[in-house]
From TrEMBL:
Domain of life: Bacteria
Name of the protein described by the UniProt record: M23ase beta-sheet core domain-containing protein
Signal peptide: 1-20
Location of the M23ase beta-sheet core domain: 49-136
UniProt keyword annotations, A-Z: Signal
Pfam families tied to this protein: Peptidase_M23
CDD domains noted in UniProt: M23_peptidase
Keyword Signal: yes
């Protein structure tokens, strides 16, 4: 057992550093916007809540893909213009209200404009607000997550194993 502990310790000491930013997201509005409404996941999933964040913007401002992905939806959903992306690992992000400049099946990355921000998002205190959502898994069983926690600019903090 002691030999195993020494081997593990040696491997940890010799291990290179990793980058936590790999696969992390970028702000969909640039420069980094202010958040006008925060994430408020419902519990259980079917109850009321806010399954994303609202970001202050300007009408006609470009909305960018938050990272490398494939466009899986670009059109009207429940009367609202929405763009939805599928990222590697099962993450999906959504953006609304956006007048889409992309098409389903298109590959995008963080430099790709998805379209332009439209005014009219309910409860928006700014000239226009982007509702930005993120979820893991298929929409029928999605686990909604706070997209702000996925940003490359959000520091990663590891918790200690003890105490």
């Amino acid at each position: 057992m002691r030999v195993l502990a020494v081997v593990v310790a040696a491997l940890l000491v010799c291990a290179g550093t990793g980058r936590a930013d790999a696969g992390r997201l970028l702000w969909p509005l640039r420069p980094a916007p202010s958040v006008t409404r925060t994430f408020d996941a419902p519990s259980p999933d079917w109850q009321r809540g806010h399954r994303g964040v609202d970001l202050a913007g300007l009408p006609d401002q470009p909305v960018y893909a938050a990272g490398s992905a494939t466009v899986v939806f670009a059109g009207r959903l429940a009367g609202r213009p929405v763009v939805s992306l599928a990222h590697a690992g099962g993450l999906r992000t959504s953006y609304e209200p956006v007048d889409a400049a992309v098409r389903v099946g298109q590959l995008v990355d963080g430099s790709t404009p998805l379209g332009r921000l439209l005014p009219g998002h309910a409860g928006c205190p700014a000239p226009a607000c982007l509702h930005w959502g993120a979820m893991w898994g298929p929409s029928s069983r999605a686990d909604y997550v706070d997209p702000l926690g996925l940003l490359a600019s959000t520091p990663v903090r590891l918790k200690p194993l003890t105490g």
